[in-house]
Design goal:
CATH topology of one domain: Methylamine Dehydrogenase, Chain H
Oligomer: single chain
Strand content: over 45%
CATH superfamily of one domain: YVTN repeat-like/Quinoprotein amine dehydrogenase
Protein name: DUF1513 domain-containing protein
CATH class of one domain: Mainly Beta
CATH architecture of one domain: 7 Propeller
InterPro entries: TAT_signal (IPR006311), UCP028101 (IPR008311)
Pfam family, one: DUF1513
Organism: Vibrio panuliri
C-alpha cells in the first residue's frame, strides 16, 4: 500500500495541471527572492519517509530553522510575546511540542494521557497567557478543550466540554470568545464509526466554557473542521464531506453574528475539484481563500457575493495565511504562492515539503 507521504510525493508533478484557473494564472516566478532572518511563518513539514519536522521560515517561506517532530504534525500556533510556538500532532495525536521559534530550543513535549488524544489544533488566548487545545476522549470521541497555563510550564489547569464530539480546530475571536469546529465524527483511530448519526456544529464558547451559540449546516454529513476569522466578526468554516462519493456539496461556509451559516457558492464540478475536503482558510476584507491538498488546488471567493472567482492548481495545496495585504499559500511541492487578489500572484520555490497548515507570527 502506498503511504500517505509517498502518495503526496508522487502527486507533486503528475497533478499540477489537473485544474485550470477560472481567471488567467498570471504567475511570475521569483526563485531568487532574498532570504530574511526574521521569523514570519511556521508550519509542519514532511522530511522523509516517517520523518517529520516543524519549520520556522521567513516571509517568503524560505526556511530559517527546523526542529524534528516525534510523529507527523498538523496545526501550529504562535505566541509573539514570548517567542513560543506549538506544533500539534495529527489526529489522533499523542503530543504537542512547545518551542522557542527564535532560538530553536524545545521547551516542552506534552504527551497525551492514555485515555486522551489531540485533534491537531490549538490556539493561544489573545493575551498569550493560556493555550487552548482540541482534545478527545478515546473510546467515545467526547470533545474537550484543554486549557494550559503558559507561565506555569504549560500545565493543564482546566477543561471545557459538553459541546459535542470530534472537535477539530479552535480559534479565538477578538472579543475572546472561543470558536470550535465540531466535526461530529466518532472515530476509532481514524476510522469513522457514526457517519449516519454525526452531528457537526460551529460552536461559540465564552472563555469560561459557557456555550453561547451553536450553528449547524442542513446536511449533517458535512463535518465542520477548519476555521478562520477575518480579524473582525466574520467566521469561515471548511468542511469534509462524509456522504456519497459522487455528490459535491458546498465545502465552505461563512458566519456573521446572529445569522445562519451561509454556504459559499461554486458549481458542483468546481466543488468536485476539492475532493470533498477543505484544509486551510484565510480571509481579508474582500476575499476568502481556501486550500485542498486532496484536490491539489485552492480557490478564492468574493466575500461580498459569496461566489468563487478563481480556482487554481497547486499540487498538495496546504497552508494559507493573510498578512499585510497578501495571502501566502504553501504546498507539499515546495512552491509558495503570494497573492493579493485574483490574478495577481507570484511564486517561489522552497526546499520544504509543507504539510497541512501555516501560522503567521503577528
Amino acid at each position: 500500500m502506498v503511504t500517505d507521504p509517498t502518495r503526496r510525493t508522487l502527486l507533486k508533478a503528475a497533478l499540477f495541471g489537473a485544474a485550470a484557473p477560472i481567471l488567467p494564472f498570471g504567475c511570475s516566478s521569483t526563485p531568487n527572492t532574498p532570504q530574511s532572518s526574521q521569523p514570519s511563518l511556521i508550519g509542519c513539514a514532511i522530511t522523509g519517509r516517517d520523518r517529520y519536522s516543524v519549520v520556522v521560515a521567513d516571509q517568503f517561506g524560505q526556511p530559517i530553522r527546523q526542529l524534528p517532530l516525534p510523529e507527523r504534525g498538523h496545526g501550529v500556533t504562535s505566541n509573539a510575546a514570548r517567542g513560543h510556538a506549538v506544533a500539534f500532532a495529527r489526529r489522533p495525536g499523542s503530543y504537542f511540542m512547545v518551542f522557542d521559534y527564535v532560538t530553536g530550543e524545545m521547551i516542552r513535549l506534552n504527551k497525551a494521557s492514555p485515555s486522551r488524544h489531540y485533534y491537531g489544533h490549538g490556539v493561544y488566548s489573545n493575551d498569550g497567557h493560556l493555550l487552548f487545545a482540541t482534545e478527545g476522549e478515546r473510546g467515545t470521541s467526547r470533545g474537550i478543550i484543554g486549557i494550559y497555563d503558559v507561565a506555569d510550564g504549560y500545565k493543564k489547569i482546566d477543561e471545557l466540554t459538553d459541546f459535542g464530539i470530534g472537535p477539530h480546530e479552535v480559534i479565538v475571536m477578538p472579543d475572546d470568545r472561543l470558536v470550535i469546529g465540531v466535526g461530529g465524527v466518532h472515530t476509532n483511530g481514524r476510522e469513522p464509526l457514526n457517519l449516519e448519526s454525526m452531528q457537526p456544529s460551529l460552536t461559540f464558547l465564552s472563555p469560561r466554557g459557557e456555550r453561547l451559540e451553536q450553528r449547524s449546516l442542513p446536511d449533517h454529513r458535512l463535518s465542520i473542521r477548519h476555521l478562520a476569522h477575518d480579524g473582525d466578526n466574520t467566521v469561515l468554516c471548511g468542511q469534509q464531506y462524509r456522504g456519497e462519493p459522487d455528490e459535491y456539496p458546498a465545502l465552505l461556509a461563512m458566519y456573521r453574528s446572529g445569522k445562519e451559516l451561509q454556504p459559499l457558492y461554486a458549481e458542483p464540478e468546481q466543488w468536485a475539484r476539492f475532493s470533498h475536503y477543505i484544509a486551510s482558510i484565510a480571509a481579508s476584507d474582500e476575499w476568502i481563500l481556501a486550500t485542498s491538498p486532496r484536490g491539489n488546488c485552492y480557490g478564492i471567493w468574493s466575500k461580498q457575493s459569496g461566489e468563487l472567482v478563481e480556482l487554481s492548481p497547486l499540487p498538495d495545496a496546504s497552508g494559507v495565511v493573510f498578512n499585510q495585504g497578501e495571502f501566502a499559500i504553501s504546498s507539499g511541492s515546495g512552491t509558495v504562492i503570494t497573492q493579493s487578489q485574483p490574478r495577481d500572484k507570484s511564486s517561489v520555490f522552497t526546499s520544504i515539503q509543507w504539510d497541512n497548515h501555516w501560522s503567521m507570527i503577528a
